[in-house]
Amino acid sequence: MEFRLLGPVGVLDGRTGRLLRPAGDRQRALLCALLAHAGRPVRPAALIGELWGGEPPADPAGALHAQVSRLRRLLRRGTGGREWIRTLPAGYRLVPDAATVDAVRFTRLADEGLALLARDPGRGGTLLRDALALWRGPALQDSRGGPLCAAEARRLDALRLTALEGLYATALGRGRHAEVTGELERLTLAHPLHEPFHDQLMLALHRSGRRAEALAAYRRARQALVRAHGAEPGPALRARLAGILQHA
């Protein structure tokens, strides 16, 4: 049994290998909201806002109860009758084992890997690769939830970018500049406003003897930032440019 948030939202039935998909946006949003607070109760008012926004049904408590009952039935089918959702005075709580939620496993592996990079880059890099391998698409890919789901998606996406930065920093520190240049170019295209990837790409190109391309990478980064925010690159990217120019 595995709860999945790192891509299409669903529950993997460990016995059959079948992915059980909650039917409809509200069912997926409910599962996401409960998993984002796994082990902690979520207030009914917060869940009602998550599922219906500013247009709640005539009987919001009854409608929420119906949604929770539907999700309970789905989870029971996938686990031989096990009860995963508990009703408490403070709200509803989903109580999975930590190892059964891909987002929890990713967070643990990424945090451990990042913490190890300074003293054991080999082991840290292995943990980061294991963490990133759990992703099957954008976080909460097909969930149209409210603020709880959106906040969890932002947290997971931000940690994924940080894990990628750490992985490529390790590769650059080991002299694998030419090997990672293509991957960093793809990342700067996918995340044109994420300055650390531009910084790493410039470093990789410069150390590979491709100074002109490193300068062109800076110009592309600057154009993207100015176009999107009307702002110049930050201190780290400007310092990278200055360092490259000093080695003319």
Automatic annotation (TrEMBL):
This is DNA-binding SARP family transcriptional activator. One of its GO terms (biological process) is regulation of DNA-templated transcription. The keyword Cell membrane does not apply. The keyword Transcription regulation applies. InterPro entries: AfsR-DnrI-RedD_regulator (IPR051677), BTAD (IPR005158), OmpR/PhoB-type_DNA-bd (IPR001867), Sig_transdc_resp-reg_C-effctor (IPR016032), TPR-like_helical_dom_sf (IPR011990), WH-like_DNA-bd_sf (IPR036388). Keywords: DNA-binding, Transcription, Transcription regulation, Two-component regulatory system. PANTHER family: TRANSCRIPTIONAL REGULATOR REDD, TRANSCRIPTIONAL REGULATOR REDD-RELATED. Gene3D superfamilies: Tetratricopeptide repeat domain, Winged helix-like DNA-binding domain superfamily/Winged helix DNA-binding domain. Residues 1-96 bind DNA. Residues 1-96 form the OmpR/PhoB-type domain. Belongs to the AfsR/DnrI/RedD regulatory family. SMART domains: BTAD (SM01043), Trans_reg_C (SM00862). GO terms for molecular function: DNA binding. Pfam families: BTAD, Trans_reg_C. It comes from Streptomyces griseomycini. SUPFAM superfamilies: C-terminal effector domain of the bipartite response regulators, TPR-like. It comes from the Bacteria.
